[in-house]
Amino acid sequence: MSGIAEGKVVVVTGAGGGIGRDIALAYAKAGAKVVVNDIGVSLTGEGGGDGPAKMVADEIIKAGGQAVPNLDSVASYEGANNIIQTAIDSFGKIDIIVNNAGNLRDRLFHKMSEEEWRQVIDVHLHGSFFVSRAAAPYFREQESGAFVHMTSTSGLIGNFGQSNYSAAKMGIVGLSKSIALDMARYNVRSNCIAPFAWSRMTSSIPAETPEEKARVAKLQKMEANKIAPMAVYLGSDAASEVTGQIFGVRANEIMLFSQPRPIRSVHMSTGWTPELIAEVAAPALKGSFFKLERSPEVINWDPI
Prior knowledge:
Number of strands: 8
CATH superfamily: NAD(P)-binding Rossmann-like Domain
Pfam family, one: adh_short
Family: Belongs to the short-chain dehydrogenases/reductases (SDR) family.
CATH class: Alpha Beta
Organism: Advenella faeciporci
Mean pLDDT: 92
Number of domains: 1
Protein name: Short-chain dehydrogenase
Largest sheet: 8 strands, mixed
Distance between the termini: 30 Å
Order of helices and strands: EHEHEHEHEHHEHHEEHH
Domain Ketoreductase: 8-213
Number of helices: 10
């Protein structure tokens, strides 16, 4: 195998199935040596074992690539360090991190428990930090490296019943930008992908009303393997000048997302009071307020 990631060593978390599996396979096909990380549990936490990670690693090896499984949890600092150590022990270095591991504990905000909040933040946000932080000293020393993080339009735009997931995914955007800024001097890059794909994650979306069924039908047309090319590109040297960005991948469509910037301002030379804000500032800014919308209402065209 040879390709755009020839000679690279990559860690792909949550790679036992869905988007992560396809990314791991694509990296191997592109010439990378792969650490296939997955704890082997369902989205809701049931099960566990080496099955998924080992199966993907074996699939890569059978096809002529190099891979090792890893079962550590990204949700602990120790587990994250063990994941990176697996790469060092097996292949002698680490070049690319793909923070893909995820879970869901969907619940309307006013009904969400502390446990449901913490479990999602722990895997998505803490997991992305822990694994990235474990790799950072190696990237700094070798003065190269790439992080690819998974965000979501649930955070970038909004969705029902996912305050934990949305908060984590927006937190990952801020984490990625901070990594890009802090580690640019070491030629280390960090970018995000917002994937649109039918996978283990999206299979839990409710499909009871006609509108929900129609939305799920559209999602089912979006294959998980469509995400992998962007993930491989961002980890490769071909993307050496790409950092701090947020991309969306939706079937055969690639999007570049905007990032928060001031869009309008008002000034009062004598300073503002609450009353003046209500009388002058708020009406002046109101025309530029963003509507309260969900992801499917903003990205409302059919996948290509």
